[in-house]
Amino acid sequence: NAGVTQTPKFRVLKTGQSMTLLCAQDMNHEYMYWYRQDPGMGLRLIHYSVGEGTTAKGEVPDGYNVSRLKKQNFLLGLESAAPSQTSVYFCASTENTGELFFGEGSRLTVL
Amino acid sequence: RKEVEQDPGPFNVPEGATVAFNCTYSNSASQSFFWYRQDCRKEPKLLMSVYSSGNEDGRFTAQLNRASQYISLLIRDSKLSDSATYLCVVKDPTGGFKTIFGAGTRLFVKA
């Protein structure tokens, strides 16, 4: 079972570069989320989606954009990367049971 | 005040010990509560949901105290494999399906 798959798993960017993280889930879940996790801090919600074609801002949306064109995919974009965006990014999905299913994480370093 | 607060620890305990973690939440309208476990450099995984009546799963017991707005996790007969970070999670009751994470409590179980 694939579950939630994130790509890429590792990436190094230079300040000002752009990139897209892809999250794909095969559980037919309606709800998908992007979190970032920094040392000593919990997961902070960046953006989330309650269904295909919908997105909403979380706690820390600045500097990020998202799209949910297909139910199974949730894309997180960085238009102009900054060192403050160095973090581990987790995607998660749920079918409103409360349990979140996470991907393995994407480790991003911005130099 | 943070929405979900946990003692960051670390808790260092010997094998076989009993250890308890508490977590407080600020929104009295919160309805759903969970404990997740996160191993080093891995994604969080659901450990157990927390029900109003309390619930037990083997060596793990979770309890909810709505009056004081805290949830707890008790681990009995600690094993080396219990070493991890334990995340307290509260579901946003406003209907946006946002799930709010505490910063986590680190547990080290030593032989």
Question: Would you mind describing this structure in some detail?
Answer:
Chain A is mostly beta strands and 111 residues long. Chain A is 0% helix and 50% strand. Chain A contains no helices and eleven strands. In chain A, the strands form two sheets. In chain A, strands 2, 4, 5, 6, 9, 10 and 11 form a seven-stranded mixed sheet that branches. A four-stranded antiparallel sheet of chain A has the order 1-3-8-7, with no helix packed on it. The model of chain A has no long low-confidence stretch (mean pLDDT 94). With 111 residues, chain B is mainly beta. Chain B has no helices and eleven strands. Chain B has strands at residues 4-6, 11-14, 19-25, 32-38, 45-50, 55-57, 60-65, 70-75, 84-91, 99-101, 105-110. In chain B, the strands form two sheets. In chain B, strands 2, 4, 5, 9, 10 and 11 form a six-stranded mixed sheet that branches. A five-stranded antiparallel sheet of chain B has the order 1-3-8-7-6, with no helix packed on it. The A-B interface holds A 31, 33, 35, 40-45, 48, 50, 56, 58, 90, 94, 96, 98-100, 102-105 and B 4, 8, 32, 34, 36, 41-46, 49, 87, 89, 91, 96-104.
